[in-house]
Amino acid sequence: MEELSAFTGRETIFAAKMAQTNPQPSQHGPWKITVYDQENFQGKRMEFTTSCPSVTESSFDNVRSLRVENGAWLGYEHTGFGGQQFILERGEYPRWEAWSGSNAYHVDRLMSFRPISSANHKESKITLFEKENFMGHQWEVQDDFPSLQAMGWGNSEVGSMKVNSGGWVCYQYPGYRGFQYILESDHHGGDYKHWREWGSHAQTSQIQSIRRIHQ
């Protein structure tokens, strides 16, 4: 349990950021996002309440800042919901660093996005499996963990996962860093049999921190 203390500072900072970017839910609808083509909420703006497969269809060359007003959203590096994934929860994102969430993988492109309908922070459950196809040692998770290894997971990799309910963000490194993989109970039937199913950008089975998505 000593390793966990190494991430306490990061977790505290993370919790503070979450408090800032997740105010009380609005009553105006389930999903709403406003995107801008310039940093700091400047330039051309457009509101969306449904999926956007390509911002170029709205005469944007890129999204450089955004506000999530309702619901949780999933942003993508490329058009057509491809490339790196970025979790977008309620709050303000004045520059791309605010959603890239990693010192290792900075991507200044956000070209498509969609709502996450399964997000349910209070009733989320996921089962981790040691090997592919739901084999080997398993562990049912219902809480946020900045370090899976510190809490008893045997190695730095996860073979497969079953999302029983809600939506989850899995991170390559401890402290919610590295590649982000968003796993949802209403995609793949909640079954992710192999790390390649985590996203088109997935290159490894390494997962070392995990948290529930805030709706």
From TrEMBL:
<feature type="domain" description="Beta/gamma crystallin 'Greek key'">
    <location>
        <begin position="31"/>
        <end position="70"/>
    </location>
</feature>
<feature type="domain" description="Beta/gamma crystallin 'Greek key'">
    <location>
        <begin position="124"/>
        <end position="165"/>
    </location>
</feature>
<keyword id="KW-0677">Repeat</keyword>
<comment type="similarity">
    <text>Belongs to the beta/gamma-crystallin family.</text>
</comment>
<dbReference type="Pfam" id="PF00030">
    <property type="entry name" value="Crystall"/>
</dbReference>
<feature type="domain" description="Beta/gamma crystallin 'Greek key'">
    <location>
        <begin position="71"/>
        <end position="117"/>
    </location>
</feature>
<comment type="function">
    <text>Crystallins are the dominant structural components of the vertebrate eye lens.</text>
</comment>
<keyword id="KW-0273">Eye lens protein</keyword>
<dbReference type="InterPro" id="IPR011024">
    <property type="entry name" value="G_crystallin-like"/>
</dbReference>
<feature type="domain" description="Beta/gamma crystallin 'Greek key'">
    <location>
        <begin position="166"/>
        <end position="214"/>
    </location>
</feature>
<dbReference type="InterPro" id="IPR001064">
    <property type="entry name" value="Beta/gamma_crystallin"/>
</dbReference>
<dbReference type="InterPro" id="IPR050252">
    <property type="entry name" value="Beta/Gamma-Crystallin"/>
</dbReference>
<protein>
    <submittedName>
        <fullName>Beta-crystallin A3</fullName>
    </submittedName>
</protein>
